From TrEMBL, chains A, B:
Protein name: Helix-turn-helix transcriptional regulator
Gene3D superfamilies: Winged helix-like DNA-binding domain superfamily/Winged helix DNA-binding domain (1.10.10.10)
A Pfam cross-reference name: HxlR
UniProt source species: Alloacidobacterium dinghuense
The entry's keywords: DNA-binding, Transcription, Transcription regulation
DNA sequence: CAGTATCCGAATGGATACTG
DNA sequence: CAGTATCCATTCGGATACTG
């Protein structure tokens, strides 16, 4: 009667809100692959199969959810760099597990 | 000139083809939670937020990709049971990592 | 019980053009 | 350079009704 409504008993559901996007694990994987931030163009070249529009969208969502930091340098021409936030870096073990599983069973 | 075309350097991309569906990790998580197969109805009740159509679709894809086994018993009324294949069970470490991460950071 | 069929709106994807 | 804007086609997802 008074209990909180149970939406789901599966913890993964909440996580999928953050990284469930079609390209988000891939984007995070690239950002995690090095300490250095990625310029937008480099990120784009790293993922030839994602369109510019979708890449921008997914980055905006990752930024909104606190996983990715976007930094803009008002030079000429403009430079924008993407990197993981401290919270985003906490995903490392998750992405590493995905990575090593894929290497073992899918390559 | 003669090299194979490089589609992506990110191994995770291939894995997302298998489990990238909106509900697939959740379905697999439930199927992994016990040794016993799930009847369709129980699976459906476990995930109140997924529609029957989508649940069926995702199960078909998981079946097609060799992760889930579907067994039909022509009784009256019909009984259908879903369980993981041997290959599907290999995903356990991946799902456990997702699960424990979600419990630590999202609950 | 475990679906399929249908309809429909939303989200996604891709190409192209334009901008600060 | 790093986007935004627009158009358009395809796919996805949810609700409802029907079936062996």
């Amino acid at each position: 009667m008074s209990a909180k409504r149970i939406v789901s008993m599966c913890p993964i559901e909440e996580l999928l809100v953050l990284i469930g996007g079609r390209w988000k694990p891939v984007i995070l994987w690239w950002l995690m692959s090095t300490e250095k931030p990625f310029r937008f163009k480099i990120l784009r070249q790293s993922m030839p199969r994602i369109s510019q529009k979708v890449l921008t969208q997914q980055l905006r969502e990752l930024e909104r959810d606190g996983l990715v930091k976007r930094e803009m340098f008002p030079e000429m021409p403009v430079r924008v760099e993407y990197s993981l936030t401290a919270f985003g870096r906490k995903l490392r073990p998750v992405l590493e597990e995905l990575d090593s599983w894929a290497r073992e069973y899918l390559l």
